[in-house]
Amino acid sequence: MASTADMRMGLIIKLDGSLYSVVEFGQNKTARAAAKVWAKLKGVDNNRSIEHTWNSGDTIFPVRVERRPYQFLYKDDSGFNLMDNNTFEQIIISETGVDRPELYKEGQECFVLFNTETETPMGIELPPSVNMRVTYSEPGVKGDTATRAMKQATIETGATVMVPLFVNTDEIIKIDTKTGNYVERVKA
């Protein structure tokens, strides 16, 4: 058990029999009433997104989660197939438990989140950034860089990302996995 003072981004809590991840939280203080803690929650074991408010100091029930390294093998009709690099055990996780499914490529390292109470997989997480090869991009127009102009580029997984005009086909770029945005070019 913990209190609302222990609230932080990414914390997974049990609320009304379901598991939720804290996406955003804050505190409301007024002169006349006690402080309230609010949170935007995203369902881990369901597809719901909710907002919830507690009185400051109320008890919350965090779930102990362990991140284990796995390798993404492939995606099929049953979901995302992953392999533990140590034991070579394979698991399947449905697409609902995956953030940014368009950024997964075969052979890529990722992390599987396990509920340590039940030893069940809850979802998949990518590292903070991934490197992807640009497979198609329109050529940039010379002199069109006065503003921060962007263009669409297709990466090796088939997803499209907005990139600066100077990025060309066959270059490797770094992508932020939380936002899905371009970060920088990677020198090969």
What's the helix and strand layout?
Layout: E1 2-3, E2 12-15, E3 18-28, E4 36-43, E5 49-55, E6 59-62, E7 65-76, E8 79-84, E9 90-93, E10 109-115, E11 120-125, E12 129-137, E13 150-155, E14 160-164, E15 172-176, E16 182-186
Antiparallel strand pairs: 1-6, 2-3, 2-6, 3-4, 4-5, 7-8, 7-10, 8-9, 10-11, 12-13, 12-15, 13-14, 15-16
Describe the protein.
A hairpin with a 2-residue loop joins β2 and β3. The radius of gyration is 20 Å and the shape is flat. The mean pLDDT is 88. It contains no helices and 16 strands. The protein has three domains: 2-62, SH3 type barrels (Roll), CATH 2.30.30.30; 65-125, Beta Barrel (OB fold (Dihydrolipoamide Acetyltransferase, E2P)), CATH 2.40.50.140; 129-186, Nucleic acid-binding proteins (OB fold (Dihydrolipoamide Acetyltransferase, E2P), Beta Barrel). By secondary structure, it is mainly β. The protein has a six-stranded antiparallel β-sheet with strand order 1-6-2-3-4-5, with no helix packed on it.
User: Architecture of the largest domain in CATH?
Assistant: Roll
Beta-strand percent range: over 45%
What is the rounded Rg? 20 Å
Q: Can you identify the CATH class of the largest domain? A: Mainly Beta
CATH topology of the largest domain: SH3 type barrels
